[in-house]
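Next comes the chain:
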Amino acid sequence: MLEKLLPSGVATSELLAYPEDLKAHPAEEHLIAKSVEKRRRDFIGARHCARVALEELGEPPVAIGKGERGMPLFPRGVVGSLTHCDGYRAAALAHALRFRSVGIDAEPHGPLPEGVLDSVSLPAEREWLAGTPDDGLHLDRLLFCAKEATYKAWFPLTLRWLGFEDAHITFEIDSRTADSATGTFHTKLLVPGLTTDGGIPLTTFDGRWMIADGLILTAIAHG
């Protein structure tokens, strides 16, 4: 599913069923030695996907460390993002010469818990939600998912926190049925976007989204 949201040059890998014999890379085990089983499976599954994507890029399937605020540490010259939720783990990676950053997120297709929307959205975003027929689609969770993908595309380039209130996201719906939909989204950054790579400061991101098979997926490949 994820590959439908990202352009050529971004390698993706997904796990919908978790192989019972899947083990942590020996060089990563110390990062999850004290983690509960669910956390271990999410960590191992997402990094397994990352190594599959690395091989697709022609790179060795190395251990993937953990940096500031949990940022995955990919090999030099590779950018990417990991995500996981119940029943789903995935990775999307690309060469840094082609894309500056990649951000993906997956969420279950269900409503946000009560009281969460106000803390993760701007008034203009809530106005859009109130005025858009949902027809059974949980667009509040879609908004949250797009904010998470935005953060994952932002942080490796800036090494700075980006709050939910620091990004205004607008959506276009390309197609929809009773329980699925696809479209695009545009993120306008509301804080200075100076980066650590010496490139053009960040002002916006553009991404794609999908609701299908009980999942919401969002993806950004920033060139």
Notes: Residues 37-56 form the longest helix (20 residues). The helical segments are 37-56, 117-120, 123-131, 139-158. The chain has a mean pLDDT of 96. The beta strands are 10-15, 65-66, 72-73, 78-85, 88-95, 101-108, 167-176, 181-189, 204-212, 215-222.
